[in-house]
Amino acid sequence: MANYESRPTYVFILCCPWSRCCGMGDFRPRTVWLGHPEKREQRYPRNVINNQKYNFFTFLPGVLFNQFKYFFNLYFLLLACSQFVNELRLGALYTYWVPLGIVLIITMIREAVEEIRCYLRDKEVNSQIYSKLSTRGTVKVKSSGIQVGDLIIVEKNQRVPADMIFLRTSERNGSCFLRTDQLDGETDWKLRLPVACTQRLPTAADLLQIRSYVYAEEPNIDIHNFIGTFTREDGDPPVNESLSIENTLWASTVIASGTVVGVVIYTGKELRSVMNTSNPKHKVGLFDLEVNCLTKILFGALVVVSLVMVALQHFAGRWYLQIFRFLLLFSNIVPISLRVNLDMGKMVFSWMIRKDSKIPGTVVRASTIPEQLGRISYLLTDKTGTLTQNEMVFRRLHLGTVAYGMDSMDEVQSHVFSAYTQPTHDLPASRAPAATKVRKTISSRVHEAVKAIALVHNVTPVYEANGVTDQAEAEQHYEDTCRVYQAASPDEVSLVQWTESVGLTLVGRDQSSMQLRTPSGQILNFTILQMFPFTYESKRMGIIVRDESTGEITFYMKGADVVMAGIVQYNDWLEEECGNMAREGLRVLVVSKKSLTEEQYQDFEARYVQAKLSVHDRSLKVATVIESLEMEMELLCLTGVEDQLQADVRPTLEILRNAGIKVWMLTGDKLETATCTAKNAHLVTRNQDIHIFRPVTTRGEAHLELNAFRRKHDCALVISGDSLEVCLKFYEYEFMELACQCPAVVCCRCAPTQKAQIVRLLQERTGKLTCAVGDGGNDVSMIQEADCGVGVEGKEGKQASLAADFSVTQFKHLGRLLMVHGRNSYKRSAALSQFVIHRSLCISTMQAVFSSVFYFASVPLYQGFLIIGYSTIYTMFPVFSLVLDKDVKSEVAMLYPELYKDLLKGRPLSFKTFLIWVLISIYQGSIIMYGALLLFESEFVHIVAISFTSLILTELLMVALTIQTWHWLMIVAELLSLACYIASLVFLHEFIDVYFITTVSFLWKVTVITLVSCLPLYILKYLRRRFSPPNYSKLTS
């Protein structure tokens, strides 16, 4: 099976109304005849997956266009091209073309490697072999050769090659499980059901003998819904079945059980997985924008210097040509190597993050923005699975008059045991004492509640071989040691595991029946008549079962208290107890039941089937029919499960708070649970007040509540999604101003789109950098909107981590990612960029001094290899070694997160530091050039030798001056560069007098010039550290 985890898949749950405008074509519904692709009524796309940006012919023009659409690359190209004009030529062609060529070759190699990897991944998937049913029997076909209408056989653990309708399975229970983590990011298996009519056929080959077709809706983006019908024309009478999401096998999912046969309905670009794959917005770091701004200033300086030079010549002769010559002569002012150095630096920072043993499993998916991590002002985090483990533990069963906690579960166990072991006719009711009567009613109520919890779920027990027992035997004898529970939610598994612990065990389930085992070992059989799965809109799930021993039909339902309150019979304790349990940090579910007569059920079933067959407004009609049952239900109990905090969440949040980062928690959970988790995780400190924003629906209410909130000081804000929407509609500016002053904000009942909206508003209103952290599909929009998106690989799958810029395995790793790697990346990038600019300005200043002395002649000071060697082999390694520099050890950075605060002001790279480096460059360039002009003896070649050697030594000494913590590679880089220069002097006799450089005169002159250019800066650095030391120096001393 192809490993597609390296390619992010982003799923948008909401349908996109612009899909037709976005180049997705004009999609139409279709009728697909089983096994007859030739009967198609329209052309369908080929089933080829193609994730490449370019093909063989478009690669070169495409890469070149993407490089030269940026101003500075285009500027350097024009400079290089100008050397073909004789009047503008300043030296050898290679002095301009080689640096540009190196930059382009590095870019092309990187793009080519990415394209080849992409091509090989696509080829692997497109070349996978599948079995196809045809009139000639079973034939082999490549994934890319599959067409709409083909009958495809997919084996266990094989990827589904195209979107199909599920027709048959080899499983005895008549269903199959799918792994969908590559499609929707959820790790839990999904149950799928075949079309009943085709599953009943004796063999798979009979599918080609019947005359049948599938009517499917037009292709769309929604992976959670499907509307279609299956029709068999040659039946007597003709068979018509409705199709829903339960009958589909979407491409990119994996069959987890049995062998299945399906008919292909969508291929190629019409696949749900392809329509949901989007390239997220390309994030450009704030640091890159700042560097861009500085290079524009440098370009302005280049134009000004060129104009001044021509003006000092009194615009004599062909002055416009002289302007171009000076632009070329001083082109070093804008360093071509800046972009390459920074990009390579980012790759080193990303590699360091990946290789850090303290944060194992961390993945960098956006290697262009690691320095963003060093300037985060707002951190927006999800709750479930990010701050908490998404590992549910059953804590409370509440029956209204009595509640059972963890310490009294043995009582529940004894009630369940007595319900199944004591004969009910032992004690006539008339002779029973009052106490026994009460105990019996409590006992029967506990038994009813436990039985309901054991039945109302979508959990399937799966039996696996354990080395002693094989799978078939384990399944037959319901072996406890071989059983694992599969469900779409960890809440459901925790409830079923709890019923097992108190004596009522779920041992078997298929699409039509369920088996429970009592404490005495008796098996209870239930027929599943209808199943109503949980949805985010309904917030509840239901099941209708028939007890095989008594024939009783019961409708069980469980759901969130907000919806169940209107469904169950009136009571005076539900709301209060739900609030109490939520305040303890428990997730609350309300469980209810309703007994149905055979007539009531038959009437419901007829209306339900009719609603499911309609093609228009199907979901609305089905919901209306189900709601007719959901009235006056008997309230059985409340269940409370606890979602435990992730490891080290509290110390991590404290580190972030001390670093000056404000943390906002955005969750879909209820207000009480969210508030409790915020307190539990110390997101809100003990001495802070909490202002719970009252529910508001109108402009007036929002105005009053905002005024009440304005009077509070230093308190955390808790607000629900509905109230937030009202506030943002009428008082967006006022609300964001107040919220940004809070030490912490909790938004509960938040929709995924709202999470992204909050991130966007924070960016617009504050101009500060945001980081979003989440683990589920509902966090993807927030992660992609933030300046830095961090995905946590959790129980909900990999969707968030695949969509994120950085992926971590635990929330606690975030502290080190920001405090150590973010801080280092930003400080190192700032030092590197300023040093590359300094290197270029130094040589440009020398050229300006040289031209001024020689009557403003547009003659280059250094020619040929000297100019190329200066920014490559002579200085490249020491300057780039700054990416290894650090001011404090990582342990100190974690211990004193206050150091991170300094970076939020952007001091490492600012106009002030830029100006200081410009002045240093002008000083050093002038000293070296004037020194060489004063001290040279007879020939021009001596000026070149003295000035160039002094320049190289000055650069090496300046790197040494900048370094704060030496690394052995830095020493190697310095010595290697010096050795390269000395060794190359032998070959540079064209530019440098080899005999002169061996004299004592040369050595003392170079030494004096180098000392005058560097010594004052060393003295200034010493005085600054002595009298105005930076914060970190106190920690390192």
UniProtKB/TrEMBL annotation:
Key word Membrane present in the record? Answer: yes
Q: Quote the catalytic activity from the record.
A: ATP + H2O + phospholipidSide 1 = ADP + phosphate + phospholipidSide 2
| Domain P-type ATPase A intervals | 135-270
Which cofactor names does the annotation list?
Mg(2+)
Residues forming the P-type ATPase C-terminal domain are 802-1029
Q: Which PROSITE patterns match?
A: ATPASE_E1_E2 (PS00154)
EC number from the UniProt entry: 7.6.2.1
Q: Does the keyword Transmembrane apply?
A: yes
The alphabetical list of record keywords is: ATP-binding, Golgi apparatus, Lipid transport, Magnesium, Membrane, Metal-binding, Nucleotide-binding, Translocase, Transmembrane, Transmembrane helix, Transport
Q: Which GO terms describe its cellular component?
A: endosome; plasma membrane; trans-Golgi network
Superkingdom of source: Eukaryota
Amino acids binding Mg(2+): D382, T384, D775, D779
Q: What class of enzyme is it?
A: translocase
Q: What is its main location?
A: Golgi
GO BP terms: endocytosis; phospholipid translocation; retrograde vesicle-mediated transport, Golgi to endoplasmic reticulum
Name any one GO molecular function. Answer: ATP hydrolysis activity
Residues the record marks as active site: D382 (4-aspartylphosphate intermediate)
Residues spanning the membrane:
56-78, 90-109, 289-313, 319-342, 836-856, 862-884, 914-934, 940-961, 968-988, 994-1020
Subcellular locations according to the entry: Golgi apparatus, trans-Golgi network membrane; Membrane
Where do the P-type ATPase N-terminal domain residues begin and end?
A: 36-96
Q: How does it sit in the membrane?
A: Multi-pass membrane protein
Can you tell me which family this protein belongs to? Belongs to the cation transport ATPase (P-type) (TC 3.A.3) family. Type IV subfamily.
In terms of PANTHER family, this protein maps to: PHOSPHOLIPID-TRANSPORTING ATPASE IIA-RELATED (PTHR24092:SF49), PROBABLE PHOSPHOLIPID-TRANSPORTING ATPASE (PTHR24092)
Q: What is this protein called?
A: Phospholipid-transporting ATPase
Q: Which organism is it from?
A: Myripristis murdjan
Q: Specify the taxonomic lineage.
A: Eukaryota, Metazoa, Chordata, Craniata, Vertebrata
Q: What gene makes this protein? A: ATP9A
